[in-house]
Every structure is written in C-alpha cells, then in structure tokens.
Amino acid sequence: MAKKLTQKQMTKRLVISAVFIAISIVLNELLSIKWPFGGSITVFSMVPLALLGWQYGVRWGLLCGAVMGVLDMIIGGLSNFSYVSGIAGYLILILADYFVAFGVLGLAGMFKNKIKNDTVAFALGAGIGCFLRFVCHFISGVTIWGEYANGWQSVWAYSLTYNGGYMLPELIITVVGCIIVINVKPIMRALED
Length: 193
Known about the structure:
Elements: H1 7-30, E1 32-34, E2 40-42, H2 47-56, H3 58-77, H4 86-103, H5 118-143, H6 155-182, H7 185-191
Antiparallel strand pairs: 1-2
Helix pairs in contact: 1-2, 1-3, 2-3, 2-5, 3-4, 4-5, 5-6
C-alpha cells in the first residue's frame, strides 16, 4: 500500500509532473522529425514521461502520459480528425494515437523494486512502454489509416513499416535517455517525495 502524501509532497509531485509534461511537449514539438500522417522521431521527448512513471509509480505515470497524449492531440493532432470519419474512427484515433499511446509510457516504473538493478529495470520498463505505444499506433494504422496504404500489398505491412519507422528509433532514443537520466543522482534526488 502506498504511503499517504503530505500536501507539500503532493504539490511538489504535481509541479514536477506539470513541468515534465511541458518538457515532453517542447521536445516533441521542437526537436523532431515529423512523419506526414502523424508520428515523429524526437530527442528524448518520452523520457520525462517514463521518469514520472518510474519515480511516482505506474498509476501516476499512466495518468501523466494520458495527459500528455491529450495535450499532443490538441496541439498538433486535431487536423488528423479531418482524415477519419464515424464515431469508431474518432474513438480509435483518440485512444490509439493519443490517450492510450502516451499513457502506456507510464509503465516505465513497472519493474521498480522487482529487478535489483535500477538501470536495467527502468530501461526495460521504458522499452515495454515504447513498444506498447507502437502497438497502439499499429492498431490505429491498420484500422483507420489503412486507406493510405496505396501501393502496399498489405495494410498490416504498411502500418508496421510506417509506425515502426519512427517508433523503433523512438524506443532506442528513449531507452538510452532513461539509462542516462537514472544514473544522474542529483536529478533522481530532486524528484524524491
């Protein structure tokens, strides 16, 4: 059972979370190679979200990731709504490309205190979170973006290639960033409740 936070600890956690989500948004918008129908390769934009999941727990991380997804949808993804139609298409777009896709990055803390080596535990959790984000985008690619698979023999191959093209580099960059940041002791101490 999680310990109850004091008001001061909760305020600190909320402020850090807001700042880290803002950092993720800035890194996602400024330092990225954008794909034509959404998705991008960024420089460490998912690391702050993974760090929140590691430091404050999976539930907190899932919530912060979902908030980032909603903000990303508002900032840059609203134009994607013009490409889909029907309630099912809108729901898949909202959930698979934004809300759940970014939320799963909070799973970075899933191996904390379960694997003795914190660096390995954090890297593995962040890697799984990134892989699950890819799965979300892959599902979206097959279900609502498949009509853009012109020239492809399979919508599955199209979605795998398109989404894997940016998510594989994102996974590698995020895991490397997580390995670096967890070993910077002043940062980790500053995040403690």
